[in-house]
Amino acid sequence: MRKKWWQDAVAYQIYPRSFQDSNGDGIGDIPGIISRLDELKELGIGIIWLSPVYKSPDADNGYDISDYCSIDPRYGTMRDMQKLFSEAKKRGIRIIMDLVINHTSDEHPWFRESLDPASEYRDYYIWQKPKGRDRNGRPIPPNNWTGFFMEPVWEYDENSGEYYLHLFHKKQPDLNYKNPQVIAEIKDILRFWLDKGAAGFRCDVINVLYKTSLEDGKKSLTVQGLEHYKSQEGNHEILKELRRDVLSDYNCFTVGETVMVDLPEAKLLCDESRGELDMLFYFDHLEIDRLIARFIPKKFNASKLLAVLAKWQQGLEWNAVYFENHDQSRIVSHFGAGGPKQDNKSADNWAVSAKSLGLLELTLKGTPFIYQGQEIGMTNFDFTDPEKLNDVESRNLDTLMKKMHIPAFLRWKWIKASSRDNARTPMQWNSGANAGFTTGIPWLGINSNYTRINYEGQKHSPDSILSFYKKIIKLRLESECLKKGDFIPLYADTHIMAYQRRLNNETYTMLINLSAKAQKLPPKLDNAAAGAVIVSAAGRTNLEGMLFAWEGALLKSGKAL
Ligand code: TEU
Ligand code: CA
To answer: Do the bridges between strand 11-14 and strand 367-371 make them parallel or antiparallel, or are there none, so unpaired?
Structure first.
């Protein structure tokens, strides 16, 4: 039996370029991370997921890797990385690396070699002849697939007269997983990092590796062609092989980022007896108020959120639980009071909703992942000039929408709701210059609210969001019921939701108001709400039949109700 230490820890995602700069070049780095490990230990973190720090030309901020076994000089050196492993270990923190193996950078030596049709590396990537020629003699792409980044997925290479496939940016060519040599290379990369001290991997878009066929896809508004490569049998086989031949030799775990995954697929991917992934990130809960994945905002409804959470909480043995990452909006700006349509003005409401959403995340079953800045209630970016956007996806989306003649105000509205830059603005450490992130010019605009929202300001205040996170993380770590107890949905309407966690004789009840108005608790919840209030985001000890605006509260009852 594997000892599943990852089920007893709270994880924290670091997006290195925005975490802490140590040398004034405006880009966060590994020495910067080392200097903040004490803060993470104090927060109660046991696992760090480190977004890519490998050599990369940065077409997609490090998710385009040109050397898997070296550190990009902007982030530091391999010695720094080794120091990060050992300093983290001293503090009881394990580190998982970001494994981006669906694609490499086009500047990776494999791809460079692969440009030569006679090279043994040609077959490392997916090269295809044109389907034919159009009337003007121009080549026609091999199929009708559309990609994740609103750009064509086939890039033509004049030299060889063939196209290569890239589901993401054209500087991110997809590897060919029908080639066993590619899998052999990946195994070496896994061993390299596990031997250096990595405790596992967060596996980027790990359910789209294997392209079963390259036939035309069914017409679709989102990613067309998906049915030919999402969660295929060949993909399951690869995951099994990596587990069997490499991962099982180490005390490590994997969390897959699985795009467009549904529950039946997820069950297969995480079924322990199959030996593929230990847990996965799904997207459904963050898309309940969005159309076309996360691009167009629509109305929030708490009962929808509970339904989605319940489906996944009860559907899988073990979940990766998250509300934010480097691709998503800040949760307080998404489901909380920091959002555009809501009562942003009130600092109280911002804090209460940030706490409540933290309480919600940390009382779910699974391994919680907190994203840097979430623990202080950081909000979406506030710049107003589209020129300031860095995210390649947002920039492509803007270009596409312009072509469709969508007016500028609407484009900006949708980009503001969906842009990945929302989560990527630098960490707000203090109220000094550049929020204490850098002494130089930050690579991406710092949110001007840093004078009000920052780590230092919250550190010594017992009522702060940060102090609240510390408290509930501690509570969770000490409770088997909160970590592993069953999830039972109790009640939801447009604004409030309620659920219980149960293990043996223990029962916790979680109540949350996801609206800007106080809400009466329905009579149906009388029994459940009768327990003792352990913690409330509004600082109350007695609920008196109602929840304040944005209030979440955790109650304890002696026996199951
Ligand atoms: O993201 C994959 C993914 O599907 C997305 O969340 C993506 O950002 C977007 O929604 C596409 O529409 C992973 C990484 O987390 C992301 O940062 C990378 O850009 C991407 O893979 C490619 O490596
Ligand atoms: Ca730096």
So the answer is: parallel
